[in-house]
Amino acid sequence: MNPMSEQEFQDYCRQCYWQLRSQNDQLEKEFQLPSFARFDWDPWRGELIWSTAGTPKVVAKIQVVGTFSTKLGYWLWSWANTGLLEPVRRAVLKTRQFGEERGIPRLLQPKWGAKESDAWEMSAITAKLHDAKGTYRCPGPDGFTFMILTDIRAVTDRKRIFGARACMHVLTGGQPILLLSREPDGEVLALCGGEGDTTEALKPTTIEKLLALEPELSLLADMPDGWAAVREGAGEDWVRSKAE
Questions:
Q1: What pLDDT shows up at residue 31?
Q2: Residue that finishes a domain, picked among 126, 154, 182
Q3: Among candidate residues 154, 175, 205, the one where a domain is terminated
Q4: Are 46 and 148 in the same domain?
Q5: Closest by CA position to 30, among listed 38, 42, 22
Q6: CA-to-CA distance for 236 and 239, rounded, in angstroms?
Q7: 155 compared with 20, residue with greater pLDDT
Q8: Do 122 and 192 have their domain in common?
Q9: Quick one: 182 and 119 in the same domain?
Q10: Are strands 38-42 and 227-230 parallel, antiparallel or unpaired?
Q11: If phi over 0 gives left and psi between -120 and 50 gives alpha, with beta otherwise, what is residue 87?
Q12: Can you give the residue range of the structural domain that contains 76?
């Protein structure tokens, strides 16, 4: 591909941005997103969930584009942010490749001085390159995290928001997780496979605690609902399979 001139890039940004605005307006009308009491996002699941009174209403699959610091006035691409799990920052690798092919510095520099309008434009470009459904901006302590929504749907089947249960051998006994299941309703089950490991005996916990106990679970962040992964022991490779 031929390099883009600065004027061509500005024109491209505007086209992407207006397309994005139309998509986001349509999402708000179709799913009534502003009406929900809260939203949560989980980098491990790669999901954004809107809910009311603890009941999930809409779920979107997400990819993180980058973060904008309102305090310091800079943009940081997610591909340069090692604090994010790898599965949720894959989309921006295509954006960076586009920047390499067209000679666009702002798509190649990991971090640069920016305004919030720049953050929206970078998100709009990424959304267009991935044929995303729209974007979302999540507030944080220092600014905003910008995401593209690769899929979105209304739900009535999820019993928990980011729920998880684990056996006591894992939670307090120091045993490694040898079976991890993502249930069809979104719940995560973690077991060591020891005696008494039945689903009825599992105790509530959080994904954050499981990741603290077993950092290797980050390798399963892109495993879809209805799948499970097993391994022979700590440090061994995970083998995934779809639940029957």
A1: 94
A2: 154
A3: 154
A4: yes
A5: 22
A6: 9
A7: 20
A8: no
A9: no
A10: unpaired
A11: alpha
A12: 6-154
pTM, rounded to two decimals: 0.84
Q: What is the CA radius of gyration of the chain?
A: 20
Sheet of strand 203-206, all strands in order from the earlier edge strand to the far edge? 203-206, 163-166, 188-191, 179-182, 227-230, 239-242
- pLDDT (average), residues 138-156: 91
Could you give the count of Cα atoms lying within 13 Å of 8 in the half-sphere of its Cβ? 8
Q: Is residue 1 part of a domain?
A: no
Sign of CA dihedral 6, 71, 41, 31: negative
Instruction: Evaluate whether 45 touches 33 at the Cβ level (below 8 Å).
Output: no
Measured between alpha carbons, how far is 186 from 220 in angstroms, rounded to an integer?
Answer: 14
- Sequence-distant contacts of 83-89: CB under 8 A, at least 24 apart: 84/43, 85/43, 85/44, 85/218, 85/221, 86/218, 86/221, 87/46, 87/221, 87/222, 88/43, 88/46, 88/62, 88/63, 88/64, 88/221, 89/63, 89/64
Tell me if residue 103 falls in helix, strand or coil: coil
Residues 221, 45: contact at Cβ < 8 Å?
A: yes
Helix (H) or strand (E) holding 60, with range, is: strand 55-69
Q: How many domains does the chain have?
A: 2
- Judge whether residue 244 has pLDDT over 80: no
